[in-house]
Amino acid sequence: MKLLAFDLDGTLLTSNQEIAESSLKAIREFVDKGNKMCIVSGRNYDIVKPIVDTYHLHCDLLLNNGHQYISSDDKVKKEIPMNQATSIKILEILLNYNFHFALHTDQGKYIFADKEQFFNDHITMAKKKRNGTLGNVEHAPLFVKKYFLANTHQVHTIDEFIASGAKILKIDARNFNQENLKAGKAQILAISSIAIHSSFEAFLEITSKDANKATLLNDYAKEIGVDHHDIYVFGDSMNDLELFESFPNSIAMGKSSQPILKLAKWITDTNDNDGIYKAIETHIN
């Protein structure tokens, strides 16, 4: 049995936040031969679940940059939370430097802001990154309020969050003030147990170093009985780095980050030009 492990943004999803029909066709033919696929994403469950349901992908989900594993039947199989003392230090830094952030936890998403304002700010920042418009992606779960705010809880203080008992799996933080971003990031990086990935300059994905996409995928593969050399990882950005360092069969999408391109065994076409289909047909089937 072989396993395809897909990152979502920039990889399995096109720039319109859709899965190409050619990708679906290749994946379904691959799975019909007795193989498996899984999602390995930095996204949280409430954003990823609508995507796999829309395309009828019955697969396991490795989420929050390797800190949560949810099976295809929606059961939480594994979670690797951040140490509480470390969580408090990071929250103090984020609040001090006015970051816009969300805590992805074992009990859903926690924010230190009004829900409506948090969503509106999210859309404003997304438009800023996309030259002022969402265009064809406004329908995607990441930009639809009912999905983006699903299972979201508002708190006002660090003490209130700690009292909730929720354990942090991953923090998404944004800051377009360069001075605050630089100072806050430096202080977080000074915490030795913490890892930061960035898919663009103003965005930080903060997790513990106890796990990443590669460590969770390795554990998952052992659980389902897939050999290391029968795993094919697909990715494009820096939160896929450990996957490309750890698994020999690595496939970078066209226009991937340079470190990913350098590590990849194969480079396929872009996510908008049938890159997934071409890679499966050329290198795997």
Structure description:
The protein is an alpha/beta fold and about 280 residues long. It folds into 2 domains: about 150 residues, HAD superfamily/HAD-like (Rossmann fold); about 120 residues, Hypothetical Protein, Haloacid Dehalogenase-like Hydrolase, Chain: A, domain 2 (2-Layer Sandwich), CATH 3.30.1240. The protein has 12 helices and 14 strands. Helix 2 runs parallel beside helix 12. The longest helix is centred in the middle third of the chain and has 15 residues. The mean pLDDT is about 95.
Produce the secondary structure layout.
Blueprint: E1 3-6, H1 8-12, H2 21-32, E2 36-40, H3 45-54, E3 60-63, E4 68-70, E5 76-79, H4 84-96, E6 100-105, E7 108-111, H5 115-129, H6 145-148, E8 152-154, H7 158-164, E9 168-174, H8 178-189, E10 194-197, E11 203-208, H9 213-224, E12 231-235, H10 241-246, E13 250-252, H11 258-263, E14 266-267, H12 275-284
Parallel strand pairs: 1-2, 1-12, 2-3, 7-8, 12-13, 13-14
Antiparallel strand pairs: 3-4, 4-5, 6-7, 6-9, 9-11, 10-11
CATH class of the largest domain: Alpha Beta
- The CATH topology name of the largest domain reads Rossmann fold
Number of helical regions: 12
Structural class: alpha/beta
| Helix residue percentage | 25-40%
Estimate the mean pLDDT confidence.
95
Number of strands: 14
Provide the CATH architecture of the largest domain: 3-Layer(aba) Sandwich
- General shape: globular
- Please identify which CATH superfamily of the largest domain we are dealing with: HAD superfamily/HAD-like
